[in-house]
Amino acid sequence: MPNLVVLGGGESGVGTAILAQKRGYTVFLSDSSKLKPTYSQTLLSHHIPFEDTTHTTPQILSADIVMKSPGIPDTAPIVQLLLNQGTPVISEIEFTSTLSAAPTIGITGSNGKTTTTLLTHHLLTTGGLPVGIAGNIGKSYALQVANSSFPSYVLELSSFQLDGIVNYAPHIAVITNISPDHLDRYEYKYEKYIASKFRITMNQTEGDYLIYDADDGATANWLGSNSTKAQLIPFSVKRTLDEGAYLHNDRIIVKIDKDTLIIDTADISLRGKHNYKNSMVAVIIAILQNVEEASIRSGLKTFVGAEHRLEKVMNIEGVEYIDDSKATNVNSVFYALDSMTAPTVWIVGGVDKGNDYDEIMELVKEKVKAIVCLGVDNKKIIGTFGGVVKEGRIAEARNMVDAVSLAQGFAVDGETVLLSPACASFDLFKSYEDRGRQFKDAVRKLQEE
């Protein structure tokens, strides 16, 4: 039997271990950190050997194949040892796809991929199609293949997951957009990050599709100098297209194979041009999957957006509080600020990933009334925006309760408090989800006071 070592005991690692065991692999899981109790109990109940807080190097190096969790960089010493001896190191996506014949819809991008994945899944299931949803969302792809039999899957895919594919080929691939993100994992070279995203199409054939943002410069540049066998379907909010989807006079117009579907933006539950793009992608996919028009229209009206993504929390004394904790890069904040229609108190900060704030400078000048910096080190944000807002309207906080309290002090009736950090969360929070939950809890406490 093949000998599989799984590096990392999170959702993807544990799911892979269970799938591999069911398919006859000899499995060993190793994590240099302490496993969460729920994962260690799951492994014990399946009688899968594992270790945590250490790596037993000889046992790991004896593997025939290694599945590396996406959070572990290629530069990790144990990964370097494996690569140097020629051991295949792959992602959960690659491993699972070799054990499942179900076609997949793979969605990647710097921003919008979670909302697009959720909306796509919603439109397909509203249309009566039994479709799994996995990748960066919910239960792992591997665990779902191990425990269920969906005929197809919608996968949200990060660049880290795509770095570990070899033969994986989605039937429908989506690149929502590309902007600088995670550059610390790519030697601070933007071109390497772009290339990582386009791995999603490298194994596609003439019978597959690549849906892409025709307004996105990085995407256009790559397509201008590289090729893919997939059929290209663009979308745009800036220009008219002969094929694909575009915005015209507050209507989304979708043209696929000489068929045209026109949807009023008023009939879509999501707001903002970035969400119109997300909706275009989901509608294109639904049409390619033969979902009926009535079901598409119904699904667009009934969809509820992703948690922590421009999520309206509460209106207190005329001030709207919005949780956009998932905005962990500058481009995502651009979309958030662009959608603001009232003077905004902006809560920003965390672990900077090489952010260039120039692209949102004009929006900050136009939309932002005051800034609350929420991070351990706020020098860069204060240095960049200190002269943009009026004197006395930039403040620092080291916890969420203080940040929300400061924001409340700046905001008045008719204005908005927006948590849209542009940074990773790990200086003060466990994750962006933890950051968002703490924001919502702090806002609700304001209501109680």
UniProtKB/TrEMBL annotation:
InterPro entries: Mur-like_cat_sf, Mur_ligase_C, Mur_ligase_C_dom_sf, Mur_ligase_cen, MurD
MF (Gene Ontology): ATP binding; UDP-N-acetylmuramoylalanine-D-glutamate ligase activity
Coiled-coil ranges from the UniProt annotation: none
Record keywords, A-Z: ATP-binding, Cytoplasm, Ligase, Nucleotide-binding
Gene Ontology CC annotations of this record: cytoplasm
Domain Mur ligase C-terminal: 308-423
Localization per record: Cytoplasm
Span of domain Mur ligase central: 107-285
Xref: Gene3D superfamilies: Mur ligase, C-terminal domain, Mur-like, catalytic domain, NAD(P)-binding Rossmann-like Domain
GO annotation, biological process: cell division; regulation of cell shape
Pathway info: Cell wall biogenesis; peptidoglycan biosynthesis
Protein's recorded name: UDP-N-acetylmuramoyl-L-alanyl-D-glutamate synthetase
Provenance organism: Arthrobotrys musiformis
Record lineage: Eukaryota, Fungi, Dikarya, Ascomycota, Pezizomycotina
